[in-house]
Design a protein that fits this description.
seven-stranded mixed sheet; globular; OB fold (Dihydrolipoamide Acetyltransferase, E2P); alpha/beta; 8 helices; Rossmann fold
Amino acid sequence: IKRMGINGEGIAYYQRLAVFIENGLPGEEVIALITEVHDNRAYGTIQEMIKESKNRTVPFCDVYIDCGGCQTQHYDYDAMLKQKKDIVIKALDRYVKDYDKQIIKDTMGMEDPLHYRNKASLPVRKLYGKNRFGMYQRNSNVFIPIDNCSIQHESVNIILKTIIKLMDQFNQNGFDPKTNQGFITNITVRITENLREAQVGFTTNTQQKLMDEMIYELIDHHPEIVSIYQVIDISHRKQKTTLIYGKETITENINGQSYELGFDMFFQLNTEQAEKFYTKMQTLIEDSEYQNVLDGNKGLSPIGMYLYQQEKPVFILSNNLIEQKKIKDLQKKYPTIHLIDSYERLKLDLMVFDPSRLGIPETDMKMIFKVKPKRIIYGSCNPSTLAKDLETLKSLYEIVEITPFDMFPYTSLVESITLLKLKG
């Protein structure tokens, strides 16, 4: 097995055909059963281990093999950090011509990579007379009950256990697809690690109201819960979200910046690593000695909140009416924000992007080539789209450095921050 794939599988080669080996590790020699064959790839499972990697470890979770939450518990953590750097290198090798591998730094990992997730959203079922929370088996909809998750924050686990106990006590049952009984399909728990507030959501498949007594008992057990929602699945793609207790948001604080988190608002799931990630971005921003900047995230994001408070002009480009309304609301609090609908005649020292897994949108890429900012800071959650974007940009920009971050230990996911400087 030559290397690790983006989903945590081992990749071997048979006559130049890539063979993806489930739970295989780089350096191992195995006899594999081939389960699928396609024109450019094949899939297999380990039948016999001939040479085992020195980095193979015993998974710490009892349901690891079945659960779809983690992919790399069987791999030594420090070795996995090196693999995450290698995943970035392999992506650039594939898409970027002629680059210096020295620009890719070592992966920023965690000293203690357990209990890092500040949010859980888990399915609920009633099994053998008891309510259980769990996960779905890999690549299936088979429910796997779990009692404790080692990557969830301890406070999240404790609240989940209390909820399940109270559901049994008050006969507020999880949905059972076999009998079509029960109405709670999912439980969401989010905690703020720094300020210790909690938010809970119950997803239901009917408009049946949750028992007030259960809610009061839950709050009595956990006074840190300051926000509770019921989310009703109206149809396959439509939900109705209703606040049933407390305030609409909970407050998190990262690097001195406060963030009000609504129930549906995206926020980094790993608070400790988010602090490192945004500290790195802030350092690169400060080192840029910029006079003006474009926030490519178009509004409310942790790095945007930092930019708005620096007393320098921050431009946000948007032609979307919904986006514009949100940005105008932000302008009331942050007068440094300048909403623009065109980049013609715009001159910038710096652009900051932290896009989705799809990478920098084509419209923003056109803006970069028109405006030619002196520096670009690019936060990425997908090495492949990062590499494709860098290949596009390197005709104008020097790739100065790429720092990978392990935001999700024991998964194959890797994020990164890249600094680019205008050539010439």
